[in-house]
Amino acid sequence: MTTARFGSLLALTLVLAGCMATPPARPTLPLAPAAAPPTKADRWLSVATAPDTDRLRRLPFAWTDGLRDARVRFASAVREEGDLLRPNAALARPAPTPGSYNCRLVRLGATDRRTPAFNRFKPFFCYVEVEDDLLTLVKQTGTERPAGRLWDDDVATRLVFLGSVALGSETRPKPYGSDNSRDMAGFLERIGPMRWRLVLPYPRSGAKLEVYELTPVAEQPS
């Protein structure tokens, strides 16, 4: 075989080999990141209004400001309340048992000069019940009667309260979110055996913090 003919065959072989070569792989597009599973807080955050979300976020400041104001003239009264007014008193398993409760209200701090920096009120009745898959908390007596749902939160020592208040002769409060002047938001915490508190930062009463104490009624209605 002549050198020229051998060269031609070699060139033809290389061309055919090039045609049979595996084509380059297509570039791989990056996969979209997997969506994070929803958290417990996502559920109540989808319901809470922006003003209430902001109030809940500022709870540490409400504790600090409210206690500071109250201790100026009412230091002994604050001490008498014990764990009820201790910011870090929350315990595990915050969900209350459905039933009737003795409740009372303590207000701390003031946003104007007409509001006393410390005030506590006579006991009243409220109750906890199950509605669908949520607990609800309702104040039964008085001219102002808060009512709302309790939502699970990512913080294991608390439930989130979102509700509204009924006034005077109203038979029920307005739906939450329909009237900002009636909306309420806070955290429910267990602070001892069969003892809970509902903490409302920067409520519309003029206080800096409202704290409701809840203890079960000794004889539950059948």
Strand and helix layout:
Blueprint: H1 3-20, H2 40-45, H3 50-57, H4 59-80, E1 99-108, E2 118-120, E3 124-131, E4 134-139, E5 144-152, E6 159-167, E7 184-192, E8 195-201, E9 209-216
Signal peptide: 1-17
Protein name: DUF4893 domain-containing protein
Organism: Sphingomonas kaistensis
> How many domain modules?
1
| Structural class computed from helices and strand pairing | alpha+beta
State Rg.
32 Å
Report the major sheet. 8 strands, antiparallel, barrel
N- to C-terminal distance? 112 Å
Secondary-structure element series: HHHHEEEEEEEEE
| Residue windows where pLDDT falls under 50 for at least 5 positions | 9-17
Q: Indicate the percent of residues in helices.
A: 10-25%
The residue-averaged pLDDT reads 88
Shape: globular
| Widest β-sheet, arrangement of strands | 1-3-4-5-6-7-8-9
How many alpha or pi helices? 4
What is the strand content?
Answer: 25-35%
Q: Please report the total strand number as a whole number.
A: 9
Q: What report would you give on this structure?
A:
By secondary structure, the protein is α+β, with helices and mostly antiparallel strands. The chain has one domain (about 40-215). It contains four helices and nine strands. It has helices at about 5-20, 40-45, 50-55, 60-80, and strands at about 100-110, 120, 125-130, 135-140, 145-150, 160-165, 185-190, 195-200, 210-215. Strands 1-3-4-5-6-7-8-9 form an eight-stranded antiparallel barrel. The longest helix is centred in the N-terminal third of the chain and has 22 residues, at about 60-80. It is globular, with a radius of gyration of 32 Å. Mean pLDDT is about 90; it is low at about 10-15.
